[in-house]
Amino acid sequence: MRAVATLVAIALLMLAGPLAGQALAAPAEPDAGPAVSVDLALDQLTPRVATLDGPTFVTVTGTIRNSGALPVSQLGVRLQRGDALRTASDVESALAGRAGTDTVTPAFVDVPGTLAPGDTVHFSVEAPLRGTGGSGLAIDRPGTYPLLVNVNGEPDGQPRARLAATRMLLPVLSLPADAVDGALEPAVPATTTGPARPFTMLYPIVDVPHRLPGVPGETTTLTDDDLARSFAPGGRLDGLVSALAQRAPSGSALRSGICVAVDPDLLQTAEAMAEGYQVRGAGGALTPGSGADAARQWLAALTSTVRGGCVVALPFADADLVALARGGQGTTAAEAVTGGRDVAADILDTPLQTGILWPADGVVDDETVDALAGSARLTGLVLSADGIAGSGRSGVVPLREGPSALLTDPLLTAAATPGTDVPTGSGAPVASSAVPVSTPLSTQDTIGTLAFRATSGGSASAAGTSGTSGQAPLVLAPPHLWGADGAGADALLSAASLLVDNGLLVPRPLSATGATGRDATLLYPLQAGGDEIPATTVDRVGALIADVDSMSAAAIEEPGADVTPAAVFDPLRRSMLRPVSASWRGRPALAATAADLAAIRLDELRGTVRVLEPPGPYSLGTSDAPLLLTVSNGLPVALDVRVVIASTAGLQVSPIPDQRVPPLGRIQVRVSAQVVRAGQFAVDAIVQTPKGDILGPPTRLQVRSTAYGTVTVWLTVIAGGLLVLLVARRILRRVKGGSGPPSGPRTGAPPGPGDLPGPPGPVGRTPVRPEHAATAPTVPIRSD
């Protein structure tokens, strides 16, 4: 029995071991179960950067929404923090959500009431910067701190648990004087570790493509009306322009270190929307657009704001240059760069930094640079530190057999990239829109990281540095499709201006000159290759561009015409780049959908050049009656076309000379044809370019013939000839055979030459042939 008890005890210990380990490892505030879902949205954080003359309290406002199925009671919110970040690795951990935030955990602030499913409650919570004793954050020196907004509550029938939480960085440049534990603590000034860091920022104004291909003279068509909301006051794009105009106006110190990066396709779309536009719904229905005024005002504000400052144009539609070059479309990639510059310069009416190229994600390969080297005239690239081989390089570095590269700061890029600061908790919403979801605090991590870089005394390495006092320039380059809204951009620019005023940053114009150090080698990361626009989409775009080129080859520039072929087909060619926009990187389904829409729209444009189907069948009364075909041209330029009758069963057509169809007009073409059979039959009429490329779809023509065809005539002639021969033969035989009976000794034989016919018989009686007559007796003749 004792041995059995021992075995049972060992078994219980083995079962209890894992459970005990889980209990020890479990947090004090476990997350709620899957039946509970709470969304936390923050509206405001004050201050965004703590300073001597700033507030002594940290205040956060926001909303809590119960998106689950259970009511939640005993809600509480608190601010808590971790230790100050000391190294770049600490910042990386904080951005990834791995940094500790339990160093100081003040008491929860109660949110009264019970939150029923679907309900929302607003809250405001504050904590003293320097307060202790369970009420404040107990910050006693400058630094960058990980901050957590923690929401707890009791779901119906479940214990108290963490329902939602959001992390962010809180930079503290200096501390204001404050009363702590009944004593007045003096202010703590900012500490500097060296000279001011040179600072450059690229300020992207980009959106996903929304416009369908079109030609001059027709109403602009968009796939949706999202831009109307974004251009309107309070929208994302409006906020970006307003923040730049207010916090970094032309001529200001900060503006000298900012270069605005614009997507030419977005500018062109806004310009077209201002003239009126329509929106094509999912079912193809067209509705008037609502954002013409907003687009006009936004474009005017942008043009005024960027004039006189640094502006760089992205490739048209922010095309994925590497995907194009790898797909054999190197020429198209170069045209996306040069064409984009032309469009942006024409609309903004201001000089551009034409030698600088900022590729998507800051990465590019040698094949792409070679494809761009000839026509794009590159003098510098803005690249991520991950875009060159090796590590620890910063500043401006020379590239082997190519332009120099200005390297962006990887920490700042990570902080500005959506998805690095992921809210914890079961209720974190997932963005489903094409543009990253903007929140008022979306740039707080970027502000914290920028303050850390400005106060930490340098970047990873001084190799390849250039700029003030030998410091490597600190380059902030958010993603092209930046998710910041007006409030977030305003806060970031305000923080950068504050760092400049405090002597921690010095603006540096965007430049790739002054490269030092050994030559660097381009590196295209595997992750970037995985996010690339798929080769199938690139191939489709190549085919669409070839179709546009075939149409362009048939266009004729006529003297005095309102529209030139270049004005029609150059924009149409560029519009085929939208399916390979870098906005679709990592989202191949959206790229394929964009390619489908472009192909459908191009087919519609090509379909306007065709033979019009008549209201009824052609009725031909003679074998050589002509066909009168009507050729229509729905494009605003004249075209040289060739009409071909593809199906000729029952019809023989003479060669049709090439025809010139006027813009937005039609002509009649007389086709010489011969009917080869009677009845009704169908033929196909196709319009081609002079080189043989098909334009519009075939047109089925019904032909009804009541005339004898060539074959029918010959058959009739032959039959008549045979009939004449047969009649002549019969007559000849009767002539040769005669009408009387033959004479002579031979029965049944025709009479010979010595035979004489017998005397005619009496009229009306049938003569008796000798062989049938009776033999008379012989009478002798007597002499007397």
Automatic annotation (TrEMBL):
Residues 736-784 are annotated as: Disordered. Pfam families: DUF6049. The chain crosses the membrane at residues 707-728. InterPro entries: DUF6049. Keywords: Membrane, Signal, Transmembrane, Transmembrane helix. Residues 1-25 form the signal peptide. Residues 742-762 have a biased composition (Pro residues). This is Glycoprotein. It comes from Pseudonocardia dioxanivorans (strain ATCC 55486 / DSM 44775 / JCM 13855 / CB1190). The lineage of its organism: Bacteria, Bacillati, Actinomycetota, Actinomycetes, Pseudonocardiales.
